[in-house]
Amino acid sequence: MSVPDENPIAVERKIFSAVDRILVNIKVLIGDIGSNLKKLPKQSDHSCNTGDDEFDDAVALRHIEVNIHAEQLGAGVNRFQDSIGTKHHAEEESMPSLAEQEDEPARPMSGLHVRRLLDTLDGQLMQCLLCLAIFPPGEAIKKRLLIHWWLGEGIVQSADAGKERFNELFDRGLVQPALRRGHCRRTHYFRVHPVVHNQLVESLGFFRFLGHGKGNVDE
């Protein structure tokens, strides 16, 4: 008596399960890469500043480029796991309070709320926001450095235009203040909440955006 062929669905499940185990090991290695990159000087670590703004910004931009490649690795593995149906998504949590650092009330944020906000953005503002996906969630980011980056990519044509675009993101709650000092109410540093970050990386095709080149988009 011949032995019937194994159910194709069962075969697929076994293969995908084996692939997922490999991907999990890869994610561990990517985590090690991330741990090492976290040792790089932070923008907010003023003790690392040389006093030369242009040099400091050039170093920071080099760190951005390195982090882009690390984000690509991690996002690629996540998409691979999504495609074989083995990645389990955790429920999104409410935004933790930033009151201890910001002295401002916390604003709860869900993935659905963020997606609705993103649907209201024009093409140029979307590109401005997509640049933030390469920063670790919750990290303090220098506003001036971000605007310089937008200028270098050709997304905005002037520093004033960059400030206007930043203010729009701020007013919509997509970025929030960080490292504020009691005597100064201006925003020099800001953060991106993990829920916003996740939507940028996973829902908006951030890495496809990286390959589209420079230039303003006005859709």
TrEMBL record:
What residues does the Disease resistance protein winged helix domain cover?
A: 134-197
GO annotation terms (biological process): defense response to other organism
What residue spans carry the region label Disordered? 87-106
On the tree of life, the source organism's domain of life is Eukaryota
What InterPro entries is this protein classified in?
Disease_R_plants, WH-like_DNA-bd_sf, WHD_DRP
Q: What is this protein called?
A: Os01g0947700 protein
